[in-house]
Amino acid sequence: MAVRKPGLIALFDVDGTLTAPRKVVTPKMLEFMGKLRKVVTVGVVGGSDLVKISEQLGKTVIDDYDFVFSENGLVAHKDGKLIGTQSLKTFLGDEKLKEFINFTLHYIADLDIPIKRGTFIEFRSGMLNVSPIGRNCSQEERDEYEKYDKVHNIRSKMVSVLREKFAHLNLTFSIGGQISFDVFPQGWDKTYCLRYLGDFHEIHFFGDKTYQGGNDHEIYDSEQTVGHTVTSPEDTIEQCTALFLAKQAEGP
Q1: SS3 for 138?
Q2: Cα separation, 231 vs 107, whole angstroms
Q3: What are the φ and ψ backbone dihedral angles of 172, each rounded to 5 degrees?
Q4: 196: closest CA among 70, 64, 32, 53?
Q5: How confident is the model at residue 247 (pLDDT cuts 50, 70, 90)?
Q6: How far apart are CA 174 and CA 85, in angstroms?
Q7: pTM to 2 decimals?
Q8: Please, which residues have CB within 8 angstroms of residue 101's CB and are 6 or more apart in sequence?
Q9: CA quadruple 38, 81, 12, 199: dihedral, nearest 10
Q10: Residue 124's closest CA among 169, 86, 93?
């Protein structure tokens, strides 16, 4: 009979770690997470809001994992119950938000990229998500933009301009996914969720964008975590099997 190891949690990024980017989780991964949860506490931390995370991981996501941290943990659920929220609007105020949004929309309007769609800025509880192409693009357009961005560095150049222009707001810019980047106050990256995990002495984090500037970097690099870089959902399963399940199978 599998017994959970006390004081240990496995914490997972969503896109590129549990699912292919913006795709729905596979039955294989769901089954694996169910097995893993029998031996360790399991949590999810994503930059997206709970609606988008639910679209990828299922409508019962807050019950399927012990912890679900949406928007980097600015909206936090434990055992299916909301345990904390933080608001960007309250923190920054409407005047500063308006100044940032106006400048960003003007910048995007002047961008000469192959196509533009809609929803260039998505306002979330704890962050702004900025997309030069617009979040309403199709999956095919999303894939094409990702290739274009890797060549022309549209997002990284835009982040450099915004970081300099709004240095007084002490914002963090985090490039993630295929088409966008997140903007939030310093300290509101994925390490924000760690404040809810004080009962754990061993926190393993798995993510694919663990490099400097990636949206998994801060939590991967944190002194509070043991960071693991993964290359795909399949790699996540392999690494977790070796770390947590192989030992279980061997027994004492």
Answers
A1: coil
A2: 33
A3: -110, 140
A4: 70
A5: low
A6: 20
A7: 0.79
A8: 121, 128
A9: -70
A10: 86
What's phi and psi for 189, nearest 5 deg? -80, -165
Annotated binding site for alpha-D-mannose 1-phosphate: 22, 124, 135, 142, 180, 182
Query: Cα–Cα distance between 114 and 47 in angstroms, integer?
Result: 27
Cβ-based neighbours of 116, under 8 Å, separated by 6 or more: 108, 132, 133, 134
CB-count burial class (<10 Å; 0-12, 13-18, 19+) for 252 = exposed
Which ranges constitute the DSSP H helices of 19-173?
27-37, 50-57, 61-64, 88-92, 94-110, 139-152, 154-165
> Which residue ranges are tagged as binding site for Mg(2+)?
13, 15, 208, 220, 225
Per-residue pLDDT tens digits for 45-86: 998 899 999 999 999 999 999 999 999 999 999 999 999 999
Catalytic sites, residue numbers:
13, 15
**Is-contact 196 78, C-beta < 8 A?**
yes
Which pLDDT score is estimated for 21? Answer: 84
Pull the structure tokens for residue 167.
């240095």
Q: Cα–Cα distances in Å, from 9 out to 34, 88, 166, 197, 248?
A: 14, 28, 36, 9, 15
Q: What are phi and psi of 211, to 5 degrees?
A: -75, 160
Is the model's pLDDT at 10 over the cut of 60? yes
Tokens of 208: 């694919």
Residues annotated within a binding site:
13, 15, 22, 124, 135, 142, 180, 182, 208, 220, 225
Neighbours of 246 (CB within 10 A): 10
pLDDT of residue 125: 84
Structure tokens given for 216: 């998994």
